[in-house]
Design goal:
This protein has helices spanning about 5, 10-20, 25-35, 65-85, 115-135, 155-180, 185-195, 200-210, 220-225, 245-250, 250-260, 265, 275-285, 285-310, 315-330, 340-350, and strands spanning about 40-45, 45-50, 100-105, 110. It is elongated, with a radius of gyration of 27 Å. The strands form two sheets. The protein has a two-stranded antiparallel sheet with strand order 1-2. Strands 3-4 form a two-stranded antiparallel sheet. The chain contains 16 helices and four strands. It is mainly alpha-helical. Helix 7 (about 185-195) crosses helix 13, helix 8 packs across helix 14 and helix 15 runs antiparallel to helix 16 (about 340-350). The structure holds zinc ion. Zinc ion (ZN) binds near residues 236 and 251. InterPro entries: DNA/RNA_pol_sf, Retrotransposon-Effector_Assoc, RT_dom, RVT-Znf. Pfam families: RVT_1, zf-RVT. This is Reverse transcriptase domain-containing protein.
Amino acid sequence: MSKVYDRVEWGFLRSVMAKMGFPLRWMELVHDCISTSTLGFIINGKVLGEVVPSRGLRQGCPLSPYLFLLCADSLSCLIRNSKKNGNLLGFRCSKGSPLVSHLFFADDSLLFCKATVGSCEEIGRVLNVYEKGSGQMVNLQKSNITFSPNVTQGMRANIQAMAYRVRSGYRLAMKERILEACSDPSIDQRWWTRLSNLNIPPKVKKFIWKCCYNVVHSLSNLYVRKVAGSILCQRCQKGAESVAHAVWWCDKADLVWCKTAFWGRLRRFKGLRCYEVLRDLAEGLKKEELEAVYMVMWGVWLDRNEDLHSGRCRPAAALVDWVVGLLKEFRRPEGPYSLPLWLLRLLRYGFRWM
Ligand SMILES: [Zn+2]
């Protein structure tokens, strides 16, 4: 299980206690103990802000391990129930010894079953019920299957394929996430200095920074956190929606970039990772051009959100005009030039790159 304490649902804990026959007064006392905590953030050495949690147990509180045991016991009950119904057969150490179906130690769990597809499906079902009810989550990165030497190669392959189907969606999203994130500190420093010197609104800078570190809420990223059910792009249905896909390669994004002078250049970057494209753009473009590209990226992302949440999006040309207008507004107090026309021309008819 992953992050067991943080994920305990209070309502679930209360139901477990009720089922176990704790009196109401006890349940209320326990609820008061766990629900009166607040969380603060230490930023630059100072405690700032206050968050009131709605689930989870306090780390370090002497009561927490016992409350967690109550939660874990419900998983034990589910498994015992399956065993009783004959859906899950345990494992015998020797002839005549009792059947062992599971061993738990803190948040580590060992489950034993007969190597049949039916048993594996039953384990999957039990874990699913437990995850949904308790808020707990199996840590797939740390999970493993081991077979006894008697299990045939054919059966091993069958069971592994089953487990793979469950994990593959997750792995794909995980791989996407790791590859997408910037990991080269030297690129990072140069690129960051360049970004901070640009004359664009801070919210756009922040968005670009988030793209570089792959912390934008694209479907791939949300899928990894189990917030989204699929990584398939909802706008074009043509592939996983990574950050790069959403802002550059999606058909809908492409329509917008067509209206700018950067379309040809961007096409040459197709297939590169998000931070690689950002790095190459930063090294190949003049300051004003880079500002325009970042503004359009931000605009495309906003439009994507609008499209997904309310089904509305701006026509491509209107979107480009809109971000140019925003940039113009942003620069107004400082720039003596009539930037809008100049920038509009650059964006829409601009320099030839090819
Ligand atoms: Zn798409």
